[in-house]
Amino acid sequence: MLRIRQVKHLARTLNTTVARMTSVLEQPELYYEDLLLIDPAKPNKPRPVVDVRGEMRRLQSSFYRRLLLPKLEPSFFSHGGVPGRHVKSNVEPHLDSRFGFKTDISNFYPSIHYRRVYLLFTEEMECSPDVARLCTKLSGRTHQTFSRFRAPAKVSSRKPVSKAAALRFRAMLVLAGFRLSRLNA
Question: In the Cβ-directed half-sphere of 75, how many Cα atoms lie within 13 Å?
């Protein structure tokens, strides 16, 4: 739990002033640049990315390092960006599985509405509405695209995965507000 109730406490934790933090978060377009990366091996699949610059980058880094990282423990299922975890640690639990089901969540990051992030900060992390609004803005671009990539969702089993189970899994993702990619729709 973060339990930050006052904006001034958030600013102090991020080593900034309320005025400076508010100014940056009210003009995010000054700090974001949309870019397209082109992999020479896949020139027909440009990868849209966002370059965060200046004071916004500093605030987001501080938000992550000084607030989120010390207070939140990564899920057992998280492997990317978690010290001591890697591709191998992600695969190992599935080695004894004989069957698997994999799908991709289409437009994963854009499908996470800012309201869902805001509710995370108010309900789960017990922040005041004003603090939650600022934390939501610090978490990424609100009302805009974060990324256009698909995020894989996988389930493995030692026993065959029935079509009914696969459909239930897909239905759970759809009910949670995610769109599945056409590859697996």
Answer: 5
| Residue 73 identity | E
**Strand 47-52, strand 32-37: pairing:** antiparallel
Query: Token match 């499908």: residue?
Result: 111
Report CA 110 to chain centroid distance, whole Å.
10
Token pair for residue 35? 């870019």
8 A C-beta contact, residue 136 and residue 142: yes
Mean pLDDT, the chain, integer:
82
For CA atoms 162, 164, 170, 172, give the dihedral sign: negative
pTM of the model: 0.70
- Phi then psi for 183, rounded to 5 degrees? -60, -30
Over the chain, what HEC string results? CCCCCCHHHHHHHCCCCHHHHHHHHHCHHHCEEEEEECCCCCCCCCEEEEEECHHHHHHHHHHHHHHHHHHCCCCCCCCCCCCCCCHHHHHHHHCCCCEEEEEEEECCCCCCCHHHHHHHHHHHCCCCHHHHHHHHHHHCCCCCCCCCCCEEEEEEECCCCCHHHHHHHHHHHHHCCCEECHHHC
Model confidence pLDDT, tens digit, residues 105-126: 666 666 678 888 899 999 999 9
